[in-house]
Amino acid sequence: MGLPTLAPVLRRKLPRLKPFNRLQVIVEHLSMSKTTASSSEVLLEKKGCAGVITMNRPKALNALNISMIRQIYPQLKGVGVSVHGHFRVATEKTVFAMPETAIGLFPDVGGGYFLPRLSGKLGYFLAMTGFRLKGKDVHRAGIATHFIEAEKMAALEKDLTELKSPSKENVADILDSYHKKCKIDQEKEFVLGEHMDKINSLFSANSMEEIVQNLKKDGSPFALKQLETITKMSPTSLKMTLRQLREGASLSLQDVFTMEYRLSQACMQGHDFYEGVRAVIIDKDQSPKWKPAVLEEVTDEYLDSCFKSLGSGDLKL
């Protein structure tokens, strides 16, 4: 990640930069790669009836950066990608998490749409704690629609691209066939299965303060572990995320994107996003100093300002 001398420079100068310039410095730092040139970060191919987009940054967990978005967007304009697509395939190598509250952000790119639509309060739990789901659990959680062995992906891709007249139905038939043949972790229980009743109960509160109180009152090892995790997160992000999911549960995807754009602008004007990136990604001391430092100091008035319309500055889709 970047040059060895970059982190000290950022640490010294970051607090004095204007918000936009500070974000630009962080984005440039995150987009650096010693091994991959931007021209090969996205591979675009046509195979049979399909257009294939390959995100080619394995060492960065294929995290999107600006240059990748600029290459992908023209190919996907009005079409869904990844979690918002109609079909979502996971393998035993898949890892899914929404860890944004740990860096002073919120579950973006439509997290406010799909997370509250997961079973019970699972989406709220994932958003607040950043809990990682792996392999078949990504399918059991409802995030993936199909689970297939990683070694079968090339054959699956071949079968899909060779469809003569692709339709939603015959794509589904092929995916279903591979899914049914997959035997990996078939007997293994969902990693959160035994805790779902607690998750649904503890994370059903109307405020973050109530959720924290629920976890303390419950006192079980599971509840206390989640409490320990949540107390490390940005209080502002936690409150912002809870409201994001509660409002997003009844919004269209387009309206969720508009809402999340407003939240992104609020984060760029605030303190915690920059501090979270510094602590987790740049300096890696894992000791962010949040402002405010406690939930009670994040006011409803501040949250209202984060969600309010930007007028002519709102996202236009």
Molecular structure report:
This protein is mainly α and 317 residues long. It has helices at 6-13, 19-31, 66-76, 111-114, 122-129, 136-140, 153-161, 168-181, 196-202, 208-218, 221-230, 235-248, 253-269, 272-282, 300-307; strands spanning 42-47, 50-55, 89-90, 95-96, 133-134, 146-147. Strand 1 and strand 2 form a beta hairpin. Helix 2 (19-31) packs parallel to helix 14 and helix 10 (208-218) packs antiparallel against helix 11 (221-230). Residues 1-23 and 29-38 have low confidence and may be disordered.
Nutshell version of this structure?
By secondary structure, the protein is mostly helical.
Keywords for this entry:
mainly alpha, two-stranded parallel sheet, 15 helices, 47% helix, disordered N terminus
Helical content (DSSP H or I, runs of 4+): 40-55%
| Tally of separate helices | 15
Give the rounded overall mean pLDDT. Answer: 87
Largest sheet entry: 2 strands, antiparallel
The helix/strand class is mainly alpha
Shape: globular
SSE string, helices as H and strands as E: HHEEHEEHHEHEHHHHHHHHH
List how many beta strands DSSP finds. 6
How far do the termini sit from each other?
A: 33 Å
Query: What's the quaternary structure here?
Result: single chain
Task: Give me the Rg, rounded.
Answer: 21 Å
